[in-house]
Every structure is written in structure tokens, then in C-alpha cells.
Amino acid sequence: MSLLALHNVACWRGGRLLFDGLDLVLQAGDAMLVTGPNGTGKSSLLRLAAGLLRPLGGRVEAARCALADERPALDPELPLAAALAFWAPAGGAVPAALTAAGLDALAEVPVRLLSTGQLRRASLARVSLSGAPLWLLDEPANGLDAGSLDLLAALVARHLADGGAILAASHQPLGGARWQTLELAR
Ligand SMILES: Nc1ncnc2c1ncn2[C@@H]1O[C@H](COP(=O)(O)OP(=O)(O)OP(=O)(O)O)[C@@H](O)[C@H]1O
User: Fold this and answer.
1) What is the mean pLDDT of the chain?
2) 78: CA distance to ligand 1 center in Å?
3) Model pTM?
4) Which of 22, 42, 52, 142 for a ligand 1 pocket mutation test, highest count of atoms within 8 Å of Cβ?
5) Which residue of 5, 58, 164, 185 is most buried, as measured by CB atoms within 10 A?
């Protein structure tokens, strides 16, 4: 069974047609990288897949998903571990997620004090904690240093090996998978 399927999808946003006739299918273990110039609709495509945006035409079928974009979706006033616990169905997985994202030392630091790259990694920890089989990652490498890029690649590889799928938008190459590519054009 596919974890994401788009059938003949058209997207209208900002007063113009961003794309139409788009078909794609992601099965367990699949990773797809969406590329293209600014404003061509990469983030919009992720929001369509997340069910946050309605297609102008066509059909979107998605498994339970977790979206990581520029908004961390973590309570800024809470210590990081407590903020992440909100998203953890079983609660107990938070320490392992912190370790996998290289955030052990920051568990008790309020989210509002984290740096840009630390917040990105906290978003990845949130997504990995969610248990969602479909990850939607919008520019996940933004603000990450070399070591953090390696952590991202490891998280990607583990999620795919566990039977998940990933749709990511990025201006830079990502590791951890043999990425299929989808280029959106103006
Ligand atoms: N909330 C919104 N309301 C109206 N138009 C929007 C909204 N968000 C984005 N758009 C428009 O939709 C178009 C596609 O934007 P989108 O963010 O999907 O592009 P992108 O390919 O992800 O760009 P970038 O590479 O800059 O991140 C742009 O023209 C943008 O102005």
C-alpha cells in the first residue's frame, strides 16, 4: 500500500496555477526530493500532501504524516524535552529522539533559547517521535552544520529502513537515501 499518492493534482495559489497534472506515489522505503526555483510550489506541494491545502483538481491520498517546516511547533516556554513529550504518543521515546537529533545536552533548555540549527534538529526530533509513517520535510537542511547534516541523513535512513516514506523540499542535496527527484518549473 502506498503512503502517499497524488493523482492528476493541480495547485492554485497566490493567484496563479503552480502546477497541474501531477502524479506521484511513495511506497514504504521511498524518498523523494522536490526541487525547483523559489516560488514554484515546493512548500505548497508538501502542504497539499499534509492535507493543509486543498488541490484545485485531482486527488491526494496520504497515510498519517508529520510535517517539519520553518515553524518548530514546540511550546517556546517549555524545556525542550517537555515540549517534545507533547508529540510523543508513548512519552518514553523522548530521550532516544533527543539523542538521535544530537540534543541531549539541551533537554532542559527552554525552546525559545535554541539557535536556528538547534530548532531545526528539534523539529526533526518531533517528527521522528510522532510515529507517523510519512514525513514531509520542508528545507530540513536549512541552518544545519556538517555534523547536523550527518544526523539528518541518519534519521532519514532509519525512517526508510523502518518502512516509512519521505517527501522533502530542498535547495540542497540531502543524504541518507537514494532520493528520487521531482523538479518543479516556473
Ligand atoms: N499563504 C499563501 N497565500 C497566498 N499565496 C501563497 C501563500 N503561500 C505561498 N503562496 C504563493 O504560492 C507560490 C508558491 O509558494 P511556495 O512557498 O510553495 O514555493 P516554494 O517553491 O516552496 O518556494 P521557496 O523555494 O522560496 O521556498 C508563491 O508564489 C507564493 O507567493
Assistant:
1) 96
2) 31
3) 0.96
4) 42
5) 164
Query: Is-contact 83 104, C-beta < 8 A?
Result: no
* Contact by Cβ (8 Å): 48, 60: yes
CB-CB contact of 23 with 110 (8 Å): no
Check pLDDT > 90 for residue 88: no
- Residue 106, sorted as left (phi over 0), alpha (psi -120 to 50) or beta, turns out to be alpha
Interface pTM (ipTM) of the complex? Answer: 0.96
Helix (H, G, I), strand (E, B) or coil at 7: strand
Whether residue 123 contacts residue 72, with contact meaning beta carbons closer than 8 Å, is answered with yes
Cβ atoms of residues 100 and 127 within 8 Å: no
pLDDT of 1 higher than 90: no
More confident residue, 95 or 186: 95
CA dist 184 and 186 (Å) reads: 7
Determine which residue's CA is closest to atom 4 belonging to ligand 1. Answer: 14
Q: Three cell numbers at 14?
A: 497566490
Grid cell, residue 160, equals 526508510
